[in-house]
Every structure is written in C-alpha cells, then in structure tokens.
Fold:
Amino acid sequence: MRTKSLKKNKINVVTLGCSKNIYDSEVLMGQLKANNKEVVHEQEGNVVVINTCGFIDNAKEQSVNTILDFVQRKQEGLVDKVFVTGCLSERYKPDLQTEIPDVDQYFGTTELPSLLKALGADYKHELIGERLTTTPKNYAFLKIAEGCDRPCSFCAIPLMRGGHKSTPIENLKKEAENLAKEGVKELILIAQDLTYYGLDLYKKRALADLLKELVKVEGIEWIRLHYAFPTGFPLDVLEVIKNEPKVCNYLDIPLQHISDDLLKSMRRGTTHKKTTDLIYKFREIVPEMAIRTTLIIGYPGETEAHFQELKEWVKEMRFERLGCFTYSHEENTHAYNLEDDVPEEVKQERANEIMEIQSQISWELNQQKIGKTFKCVIDRKEGNYFVGRTEFDSPDVDNEVLIDAEKFYLKTGEFANIKINEAADFDLYGEPVN
Structure:
C-alpha cells in the first residue's frame, strides 16, 4: 500500500525585462496550464522558471542576481528546481553554465518545446495564440513579430532573438478574439520593430492591413502601437490611426539620437532632417497624436556639441512622452569596436538634463488638459485613488490619471469619462462626469 503520494509540482514563472518577455511567459504559462500543470506568476512555487533579460548591463545584472537568489533558495531546500530561459540565457548560455552550474537547465529564446519537456509537459500546437495573461484584465500585449533585421550598432537583440519573423494576420486576429472573450479591452501591439511587419510574409509592410482586421474584433476598444522604427515607416498606418477610433492616437517610436554623425555610426539609416520631417508629417496627418520616444545618451563619440544639438532638438520637438537611457557597451555588437569614451558620470548628467527639459515640456502640455474631459480606462485602485489612463498613455511608462476614491466610485477595467481638474509633470487629477 502506498503511504506517500507523489508531490505535485507548482511552477512559478518569474519574468524580467520588457513586454516581449511578459508575452513569452504568458505563452509558457498557457502551455503549462493546458498540460494540467499548476502554474503561478511570481508567487511561491517549488519549481522556478526565470525568464531573463540580457539587453543592457543593468538588466543583465538584475537577471544574474535573480538566478543567484533562486539558486540560494534551492540550496536551502526552499525550491526543488530552477530553470532559466530568455534573452540572457540565449546570449550567454555557456558562461552561465560554467558560472552558475546549480541551475537545473538553461534554455534559449526559441526552445519553448524543450523547456516544456523539462517541466514534464508537451508543446501543444493547437494552442497558437492562447496564453495565461499576467497583466490587469483590461489590457494585454499582442506580439506581432519576433526578432529584428535592423543593423543598429548598439543593439544585441538580433543576437538573442534572431531575424524578423512576422506572425500571420489571421493568427493575430484569432488571438485578439480570444483575448476579447477573456475581457481584454486594450491591445498593445509589440515587436522589436512594428514598421517591418509583413515584409517577410506579404512582401510589403502590412501593419495598416493588420490594424484594419484587428479593429473588427468585438470587445476591443483600444489598439496601441509600441516600438515602431523610423526608417521606412509606412505612412498608410497614419491614415488608419486618423480614421479608426479604436486605434489610439499614440505611437512609440524610439529615435535614439538626432546628430547625423551619431545616427550614421548607430547605423540607423536616417538623418536629422529625415527624422524631423517624419515627426512633422505625423503631427500634420494626426495632430492629436501623442508621440513617445526614447534616446540613448553617451553613445561612443558623443561630444558636447552633439549633446547640445540633441537638447535643442528635444526642446523643438516637444514630445508628449520621452525616456532616455545611458549607453551600454555590449559585446558582439558593432559599436563594441568603438571606444566607450563618454564617462559614466557625464552620461548620467546629460540624461538628467534631457529629463529635466522633458518634465517641463510634459508639465506645460498637461496644463493644457485642465478643464477638458477624456475617456480613460481605470487600471487599478491604489491607496486613496483610482488610477486610470487616457488613450495617450501606455501602462507603466506614461502619465496616469488619479481620481479620489473617497469621493468617487469607479470600476477597475472599465472606461469612464474623466474631467481633468489639476495637472502635475506626469500625473493628471480628475473626476468622473457623465
């Protein structure tokens, strides 16, 4: 007679890095659930899968520290097994196996079937587009392509994610329909490069065609575009943004720098003039659009003159949203052959200066919203406030709208019309109106 039943594993998936990783974790969790495995996201479990990031130094450090933390827990008997997947593992697997041998197994970004097998599960092809979402119920990421074909000198992503590979429109539409059935109202389209979407499958840039299909999905009210590349941007997308109420007046387009010298060294395939003309074209066709961009500060060879040019350009462009990060010298990239010649403290000072300028621009643009009413989605309740967003704001990175929860009741996950009464640099304060 059996006295001890087999212990049932609980698999804890831990996600580090960007929205593409969140998406990959959700696909993994969907597969595990379909295999009748008990799976949680960043909670307690005796089997741990760490989905790592390997993009820049800070992210790599966080990934390594997380792996070491769980290996320590394994040694203390608090967890039974530790598996590592994702970008860091793809990029540095041999080094990691040598340096941290106590991890049970390492997997790259394209080894989902092997990872599932190690977890005692089978890869189910019929689950294409089905996953367990980890974001608040009202929004979800929709990854429309994997990898990247761009030759940017500073970027290690093609090393970790491979070449660009678009997902067919019909698969994405089906995935959107599944998400809508689960109560998702906002799709955030992500890829390493949205601009390139469709070239491999349809021999043309097909982002506009994809959007025209996604807007037909019932229940989806907002569609947001993240990570478009400026070179070769398909202008027919602007017409869709302008004419389709469901497509948010929002575009995330990382521009990285504006000096011709640096753009050339970065291998961005564009110039100061072309970039500026493109932004003016956006504003001409879709005047309402909120443009989010990111900049790299302290790229090799960035002189004080280059930085002043960037500063003046940021003042001129008045981007609605802007973030910047300091250059990280990544091995096996083209820029690694250059001398990382801007001292770390200078990079940081310059980044702070840009963000100082941006916070003033953001404050001024926010003041113009006072007295106006916006359709907002309510993401969550935090302390004494309901926290929402306008169509001009993406979760976690952009402005938020705060509504006093002691005075007003709102349902999270639902839309509400909010009149703005007050505005700070990055937050708006308002009250619901009918």
The chain is about 35% helix and 20% strand. Residues 1-5 have pLDDT under 50 and may be disordered.
